[in-house]
Amino acid sequence: MIKDIATPVRTKEIMAKHGLTFKKSLGQNFLIDPNILRNITSHAGLTKETATIEIGPGIGALTEHLARTSGKVVAFEIDQRLLPVLKDTLSPYDNVEVIHSDILKADVGEVIAQEFAGYEDIMVVANLPYYVTTPIILKLLLEKLPIRGLVVMLQKEVAERITANPGTKAYGSLSIVIQYYTKAEMVMTVPKSVFMPQPNVDSAVIRMTRREVPPVAVVNEDFFFEVTRASFAQRRKTLLNNLQAQLPNGKAKKEQVLLALETAGIDSGRRGETLSLKEFGRLADALYPEFG
Ligand code: SAM
């Protein structure tokens, strides 16, 4: 039986053996509780038919659980110091490939094509570096990769924003872009005590399952996202005020903005945070001929 990496004793041993220190600037808070890791992997629905992408393997705590439960794992790690460590800690597993790269600069589509030939089920599973959570998730979704979904640990506050419903404080353009591409749900909240060192913020795990068909059909996706961002530009302002201030030449085109709101059946005095995805879709399509 192979000993888990994710225990306080083993983590300290590995760090000491390789003369390593935690780099706060790279979001290095390693998991030291095997139960949490088992929970994360179970929420991802992995089988030996699944190929898994991990971002930031650290010293391999989550990676080894992924190697045990999926067919193949490719892990992207930015910190060169961790490469020899991972070679050592993951030596019992022959189905793991570590790529030394910043995930934000990596051609993930190309890596999938090269490394995952024959796999139809691809998942992303990660304990994300918190300083860069949102850009990583958005990159993986906007590149429209052939993945079933993502199960990721992140700051609880960001998890709340991603999974928020209309009419709540946490609801905003991040909720909309992610809920447009995926069905997003919070599956676990996680105490600080399962990390070494402990982070300053609370954590949660969310599952984002990619949608085959978007929840709302729009004429132009980019413009739809532009309208949602414009609608939340100043949360206390009404839709009419935000749209006028943000849309090209909006100040001079009050009548056209009002007409679009009316066409979409949306009261101009409402605030962006009260609109559902479907309402944003209708609004974007009504604005598109004049402002798109
Ligand atoms: N997976 C390990 C665990 O759960 O114990 C480590 C998770 S730790 C929160 C985040 C990891 O992401 C670190 O290993 C860090 O070096 C790595 N990392 C930070 N920024 C990255 C980036 N832009 N691309 C790839 N890896 C990154």
TrEMBL record:
<feature type="binding site">
    <location>
        <position position="29"/>
    </location>
    <ligand>
        <name>S-adenosyl-L-methionine</name>
    </ligand>
</feature>
<protein>
    <recommendedName>
        <fullName>Ribosomal RNA small subunit methyltransferase A</fullName>
        <ecNumber>2.1.1.182</ecNumber>
    </recommendedName>
</protein>
<feature type="binding site">
    <location>
        <position position="31"/>
    </location>
    <ligand>
        <name>S-adenosyl-L-methionine</name>
    </ligand>
</feature>
<keyword id="KW-0963">Cytoplasm</keyword>
<feature type="binding site">
    <location>
        <position position="127"/>
    </location>
    <ligand>
        <name>S-adenosyl-L-methionine</name>
    </ligand>
</feature>
<feature type="binding site">
    <location>
        <position position="56"/>
    </location>
    <ligand>
        <name>S-adenosyl-L-methionine</name>
    </ligand>
</feature>
<keyword id="KW-0698">rRNA processing</keyword>
<keyword id="KW-0489">Methyltransferase</keyword>
<feature type="binding site">
    <location>
        <position position="77"/>
    </location>
    <ligand>
        <name>S-adenosyl-L-methionine</name>
    </ligand>
</feature>
<dbReference type="Pfam" id="PF00398">
    <property type="entry name" value="RrnaAD"/>
</dbReference>
<keyword id="KW-0949">S-adenosyl-L-methionine</keyword>
<feature type="domain" description="Ribosomal RNA adenine methylase transferase N-terminal">
    <location>
        <begin position="36"/>
        <end position="212"/>
    </location>
</feature>
<comment type="function">
    <text>Specifically dimethylates two adjacent adenosines (A1518 and A1519) in the loop of a conserved hairpin near the 3'-end of 16S rRNA in the 30S particle. May play a critical role in biogenesis of 30S subunits.</text>
</comment>
<dbReference type="GO" id="GO:0052908">
    <property type="term" value="F:16S rRNA (adenine(1518)-N(6)/adenine(1519)-N(6))-dimethyltransferase activity"/>
</dbReference>
<dbReference type="InterPro" id="IPR001737">
    <property type="entry name" value="KsgA/Erm"/>
</dbReference>
<dbReference type="GO" id="GO:0005829">
    <property type="term" value="C:cytosol"/>
</dbReference>
<keyword id="KW-0694">RNA-binding</keyword>
<dbReference type="InterPro" id="IPR020598">
    <property type="entry name" value="rRNA_Ade_methylase_Trfase_N"/>
</dbReference>
<feature type="binding site">
    <location>
        <position position="102"/>
    </location>
    <ligand>
        <name>S-adenosyl-L-methionine</name>
    </ligand>
</feature>
<dbReference type="InterPro" id="IPR029063">
    <property type="entry name" value="SAM-dependent_MTases_sf"/>
</dbReference>
<dbReference type="InterPro" id="IPR011530">
    <property type="entry name" value="rRNA_adenine_dimethylase"/>
</dbReference>
<dbReference type="InterPro" id="IPR023165">
    <property type="entry name" value="rRNA_Ade_diMease-like_C"/>
</dbReference>
<dbReference type="GO" id="GO:0003723">
    <property type="term" value="F:RNA binding"/>
</dbReference>
<keyword id="KW-0808">Transferase</keyword>
<comment type="similarity">
    <text>Belongs to the class I-like SAM-binding methyltransferase superfamily. rRNA adenine N(6)-methyltransferase family. RsmA subfamily.</text>
</comment>
